[in-house]
Write a structure and sequence with these properties.
It is built from ten helices and six strands. With 276 residues, it is an alpha+beta fold. It has three domains: 35 residues; 102 residues, no CATH class; 66 residues, no CATH class. The strands form two sheets. Strands 3, 4, 5 and 6 form a four-stranded antiparallel beta sheet that branches. Strands 1-2 form a two-stranded antiparallel sheet. Helix 6 crosses helix 8 and helix 7 packs across helix 8.
Length: 276
């Protein structure tokens, strides 16, 4: 056989010659040749209209333009409504402070603050200092301020309050806020240290004049009262060390407890809590 010659007779084509393939130009009709007598500009316009069926030089009617603009505006409004609904749905399903902002009963249950306004008033006092917060990354390493957070600062504070108020386990809090259990542990440790230093620097002892100005009626005969002292106890695990057992065991309750001295102003504000 000669070079570049291929067999063409096979059993599947009944050993017959196949017609040659048509070229690309032969598969479709060639466009008509423009009339050379027409003006060059008119020639181009007619040629485009004949091929596409549309005159791109023509101006659309004003009614059609208005209809398209009106449809675009309606589509924009629909997109905006869908976006708002999506954000509201995310807000409902996401566990955070904003989810319970409208219910003072839920705020009292989860945080022990009386109302949402009370909680936000306290947050406004400590929020400026949160930007300088030193964050705990593990048991021995601390991060400087300005690092990214797994949760917004207000939700971290809400998580910490839930841990104090309800005693929820870290795994439970992680499922609620959709973060890892290790992250919950670091948030709790960070906020415990932060609030200890921030609130520990505040003078909680009220002046005598202010205490007398807010004395309840029951204390009018005891106008010199500045603080009411009482002791409280918290049950704890029995230590393995006999020395520690002797220090924390309480015969009255027959159990190991931590003791604390609590001071309260006559009108009900806690003004002193000793170390356990």
């Amino acid at each position: 056989m000669k070079k570049c010659v291929f067999p063409t007779l096979f059993e599947w084509n009944h050993y017959q010659e196949q017609p040659p393939r048509l070229s690309v130009w032969e598969h479709q009709e060639r466009p008509l040749t423009p009339d050379p007598n027409l003006d060059a500009e008119q020639e181009d316009i007619d040629f485009d209209v004949e091929r596409t069926g549309h005159d791109y030089c023509s101006v659309p009617e004003a009614a059609a333009v208005d209809m398209v603009l009106h449809e675009n505006e309606e589509l924009k409004r629909e997109i905006e409504d869908v976006r708002k609904q999506l954000e509201q749905t995310k807000m409902i399903h996401r566990f955070g402070l904003n989810r319970f902002a409208g219910s003072n009963e839920d705020i009292r249950f989860y945080t022990r603050f009386a109302t949402y306004n009370h909680l936000m008033a306290f947050w406004e006092l400590i929020e400026p200092a949160t930007h300088r917060m030193i964050r705990v990354t593990n048991s021995k390493v601390f991060k400087e301020p300005g690092n990214t957070r797994a949760l917004p600062a207000i939700d971290e504070f809400f998580l910490f309050l839930m841990h104090l108020a309800l005693g929820l386990k870290q795994m439970d809090l992680g499922h609620r806020f959709q973060v890892h259990q290790t992250t919950v542990n670091r948030i709790i440790t960070t906020w415990a240290n932060f609030l200890y230093f921030v609130l520990g620097s505040v003078c909680i002892w009220m002046p005598k004049e202010k205490v007398r100005a807010h004395l309840p009626e029951e204390f009018h005969q005891f106008r010199d009262t500045q603080v009411i002292l009482d002791c409280t106890e918290i049950r704890c695990q029995t230590p393995s060390s006999l020395l520690l057992q002797s220090e924390v065991f309480l015969n009255y309750k027959s159990h190991c407890t931590f003791k604390a001295l609590v001071g309260m102003a006559p009108h009900g504000e806690i003004t002193f809590v000793s170390a356990l």
